[in-house]
Amino acid sequence: MKNLLSLLLAGLVPLLLRAQTVGPITVETRNSVLQLTVSGNKRLLQSYLGTKLPATELAAMSGGREAYLTAGMENQFEPAIRMVHADGNPSLDLRYVSHKSSGAAGSQTTSILLRDPVYGTEVTLYYTAYENEDVIKAWTEIRNTEKKPVLLTQYASAQLHFNAGEYWLTQFHGDWAREVQLVEEKLTNGIKTLESKLGTRTNFYQTQTFIVSLNGPSTETSGELIAGSLAWTGNYQYTFEVDQREGLRVRSGINPFASEYHLQPNETFRTPDFIFTFSAQGKGQASRNLHRWARNYAVLDGNGSRYVLLNNWEATHTNFNEQRLVELFDEGRKIGADLFLLDDGWFGNKYPRNDDKAGLGDWQEDRSKLPSGIGYLVKEAKQKGIGFGIWLEPEMVNPKSELYEKHPDWILKLPNREENYGRNQLVLDLVNPAVQDFVFSVVDDLLTKHPDLAFIKWDCNRSMTNAYSPYLKEKQSHLYVDYTRSLYKIMQRIRARHPKVPIMLCAGGGGRTDYEALKYFTEFWPSDNTDGLERIFIQWGYSYFFPAITMSAHVTSMGKNQSLKFRTDVAMMGKLGYDIRVNSFTPEEVAFSREAVATYKRLSDVIWKGDLYRLVSPYDEPRAVLMYASEDKRHAVLYHYLTTPRRKDMFGRVKLQGLDPAARYRLREVNLIPGTRSTQPDNNKVFTGEHLMTIGLNLAPGRANPLTSNIYELVAE
Ligand code: DGJ
């Protein structure tokens, strides 16, 4: 008997061991790989993240750090997840159960199921690898398998681990009218946190994008780094924890601040996506990876086209009438704009919207300003050969409004406290399904009633304070998460009925710029600051993560000390539009702008869909140089902006990038003021790509005048 048992065991043990050994799990793109392995005790480890290695090298990578750290047991670093079980046990023990992979066009998704052996909690880590774009999308699903609710107090989308000599963090901090200012610093031991607690928007201190360079600061063309961004239009948090052995843990997810989440039995919490790219060729490559991924997979109509629009905000603010608007259609036509966008101030009756103090929430035409209604304007615009778009701020309400009077319970406000206003307004309780129906129908009614309405600008002019949802009652800690989810629900309903209409996302400037929003919005408004000099820096900052096709850039009268050409050249780096009194233009300025719009339209495919190369940073020199090159390298657009040069500054030649060394390109200055000639001695000459990339061009041949600019086109012959 004893012999039989030992015989059986001898046969079974190797079998069991074999069954228990799980090979490495690799998430691969063309040039990078994330490898996970399962330890002897079934913990999931990140054993490698970096440049793609030959299979034999990868196979040798074992061990590593726990991929998704839990709280409450032996881990003492920032956890990716913290859960309190129904019985009050505040710990989670996650062990590998299984993994699988499935493919879709251009991408491969790997999911890894982990389970707590005692409590049954299931956590599935997902990684979608976009092969050609070198981008990985990571998210997590957490399922409560208990019979009673559990509490989640931390629920990261992903955690990544690094072992390098040094880590340099690039963050993009900002404020209203000063968005995405770039700062790069060495991470020291301890925890650095980047986050937003603003609820409806993110731009108080920084946008939700970052770059971590390994072993020293990366440049545009060299160095290893990851560039990451959370696709979430609400409170986010990144922690960068450098431990006592110089290991770095990067945790990315929703900000758990005031957001403990009660998960019901069988309910699954899905985190937002964390998007990242690993580049071994510096920041420029990382941006190109993200731009391509964004156009191909993330942004609504990312490879489509966009309208050149004329907005009336700067020209009229809320002070206009029907006749003035119709005149503005003609002004738009004069410069070749495709669409006229009617901004704030067109609605409100009992409380007319003559400034930002009243009317918000009452989305009926103000009959004193627009007696013939929106329908008339849409028709009139069409007759004049220009599209018509409209501004909305549907998540908000002024206390001076009929909406507020009718539905005081639809508003986020604390009981027993005074209302707290931002721009004289309050935030609607989007979590309430009745409010969702209202917001949906504001948009749906307009688009249904006016099928020719061609564009919407969706604004959001305040953050949340005194955040309390009358609808959520005792579940207040769900507010920040559920508000954002409710916004998505509304957008899904809108898109189901109106899949194509372009919608610009604005949040008092660039308060909302993220890749989840861009699934529903075709473009964003980067900043209310449209001064040309400021915009160079702001657009430069966004360019690290967002392609030009998403970045609205308008020529306005801000920065009047700058020539119209300079402001136009700056706006032509993004998605060109206008927000200016065209009737104050001289005939020469009209002619210039008309020509500029035509040139922009001719070059827009390269600008929107080309590869971006940042050549000289305005943070390094008193100028900025960048270029877009088409994928086939036959066509490129080169921008040169002199910002604040001193009188005798000398500038070196600029080496171009992204061209075909063997091709011969003709250089031609475009967007010249009619009647003037290029002062570039190399204008109209032909150069090989090799010459342009190794010898370069002298882009400031004459005196370097502040706030001047040139745009060149390069066409392979
Ligand atoms: C803030 C936006 O950023 C502006 O462009 C404009 O639409 C105003 N809101 C209107 O209130």
UniProtKB/TrEMBL annotation:
Catalytic activity annotation: Hydrolysis of terminal, non-reducing alpha-D-galactose residues in alpha-D-galactosides, including galactose oligosaccharides, galactomannans and galactolipids
Protein name stated in the entry: Alpha-galactosidase
Enzyme class name: hydrolase
Keyword terms: Glycosidase, Hydrolase, Signal
GO molecular function list: alpha-galactosidase activity
Biological processes, Gene Ontology terms: carbohydrate catabolic process
InterPro entries per UniProt: Aldolase_TIM, Alpga-gal_N_sf, Alpha-glycosidase_related, GH, Glyco_hydro_36, Glyco_hydro_36_C, Glyco_hydro_36_N, Glyco_hydro_b
Recorded superkingdom: Bacteria
Domain Glycosyl hydrolase family 36 N-terminal per the UniProt entry, residue ranges: 65-264
Species this protein is from: Flaviaesturariibacter flavus
Entry keyword annotation includes Hydrolase: yes
